[in-house]
From TrEMBL:
Domain of life assignment: Bacteria
Protein name according to UniProt: Membrane transport protein
PANTHER family according to UniProt: BLL0718 PROTEIN, MAJOR FACILITATOR SUPERFAMILY MULTIDRUG TRANSPORTER MFSC
GO process annotations (BP): response to antibiotic
Amino acid sequence: MVNVIHLRGGLTVSTDAHPSASPTAGRGVLAVLAAGGIVTTLVQTAVVPLLPQLPRLTGAAPVDVGWVVTLTLLTGAVATPLLGRAGDMYGKRRMLLLALGALAAGSLVCAFASTLPWLLAGRALQGVGAAVVPLSISFLRGVLPPQRTGSAVALMSSTVGIGAALGLPLAALLVQYADWHAMFWAMTVLSTGVLALAWRVLREEPVRSPGRFDLLGACGLSAGLVFLLLALSKAGEWGWGSRRMLGLSGAALLILTGWAVQQRRVSRPLVDVRLAMRPAVLLPHLAALLAGFAFYANSLVTAQLVQAPRATGYGLGFSVVAAGVCLLPSGVIMVVCAPLSARLSAARGAKATLTLGTVVIAAGYGLRFADSRQLWAVIAGAAVVSVGTALAYSALPMLIMRAVPLEQTAAANGLNVLMRTIGQALCSAVVATVLAQHTRLFADTAGVAVAAPTLDGYRVAFAAAGAVALLACAAACLIPRRPRPEPSPFQETEQDARPEPRLLARRPSANDVQEPAGTDTGTGTAADARPGPGPAGTTA
C-alpha cells in the first residue's frame, strides 16, 4: 500500500509499505541502528584506559596525548550538524552509511597506528561517527509507525549511556590482557559489522529538503565550533583567564555571530536560525546543553572516585576494570528505562518527561553529595542519575521533532546533540578545574605521598552538576505545551509557481490522488508524514 502526501516547495512524501514498515523488519532496523549507536559510544570511551600508557607506547609527549580525546570531540561536533543537514537533503541512509564507514575506517587506521600522528588521524575519522545517533533518531521517525516511534527514540537515546557504561571495562580488559592494538581491531570488526548490516537492512527514506548545501555556512559553523570546543577542552590545562583561552573564546564568539547573521540571509540555510530561536526549539536545545553537562559529570567523577587511593579516606583503590564494572548498572538501567520513558511521554507528554528527568538527575546528585564513601552509595547515586538521564534524553528528540518541519528533523536533532556535546565539553573543563583546585597530598600505608582530590572537591562537582540539572528543569518548564507548527523555510509564496508534485521513491501511478488547483496542502511537521485512515490517496 502506498500513501502519497504532497508538500510545498517540491517536497514529496511516500509512506511505501516497504519491508522496514512491517513489525519484524522494523525491529531489525531498530536493532541495527541501536547497535550503531552503542558502537559509536564504545569507540569514544574505549580509549580512556589507554591514555596513561600512550606516551610510552607511541613515544609522544604526555601533554600531546590529550589530543586523542580532544580531536575526536572536535570532529564529532562538526560532523553532527553537517551530516544532519546533508541527511535531510541527500538521504539519511546515505549519511548513516558515511558516518559508520568513517567510524570503521578510523578504527582500522588506529589498529595499524604506532605513532601519535597516525593515531590522531584515526581518531579524527572516528569522531565522524558521532552523527550516527541523531541521524538514526530522524531515520526511525520515517520508517516506524507512530505508536512505536517513542520507544524506539528512547532506546536510541539510551545507547549513549549503554556504550559509555560498557566501553570502559571492556577496553580496560583488552588493554590489560592483550596488545593495545587489539582494542582498535575489536572496534574495527564491530563497526564494519554494523556498517554491513545497515547497508543490507536500511531503506532510504523518500523525504528530501530542496536546495543546495550551504558550504559557506558549513565552513563558518565548523570554524566557530573548533575554536569554542578547543577552548573548553583546554581550559583546565591553560587556565580560564589565559590569553589562549580568551583568544579562542573571543574568536569563536565572533565567528559564530557572523555565521548566525549569514544564516539569516541565505534562502537555504544550514541551520534555520529563525526557527531555532523559537521557544519550542530554543528551550529544548538549552535543556540539552544543561542535561549534557549534568550527565557527563556522573561518568567523569564515578570512575575517578572509586579509583582514588584508600589513603584519601573515601577512595576504594579500584582498578580501571573494577571501576568500569561499577558503571555497568547505570547502563542497564538506561536500557530498562527506555520503554518506560516512552510510555510516560505518550501519557503525559515529552515536556513532563524531560522535567521529571532533570529533577531525578538533581536528586541523584543530592544522594551522591550526601554519601560517596561506600560502594553501594556510589553505585546507587550513579544509577539514580542515569534514570533521570534516560528520561531526559528520550524526551529531547520528541520535543524537537514536534516543533520543526518534516524536512528539517535530521538537522534539528543534530543541533540538539551538538548542544549536548558542548555541555559535556564544558562539564569536563569545569570538573577538571574543581578537582585540581581541591587536590592535595595523602600519605599511603607505605608512607609515600599520593596526590588526589579531596572528598570536598567531589562534593563541589556534585553540587555544580545538581544545580545545572535544576537549571535544565527550569528550561523544560518554560517549553510551550503545544507549539504552533512552523512553516518551512523552503515553502513558496502564493505568487510563486508551484512545481509539479513528484514522487522520489517511484514513478507516479494513475491511481495517485492529485490535489485540485489552488489547494493549500501546508508544509507539514515531523509528525505529519503518516498514512491516512481511509482509502483516499492509496494505491495497492
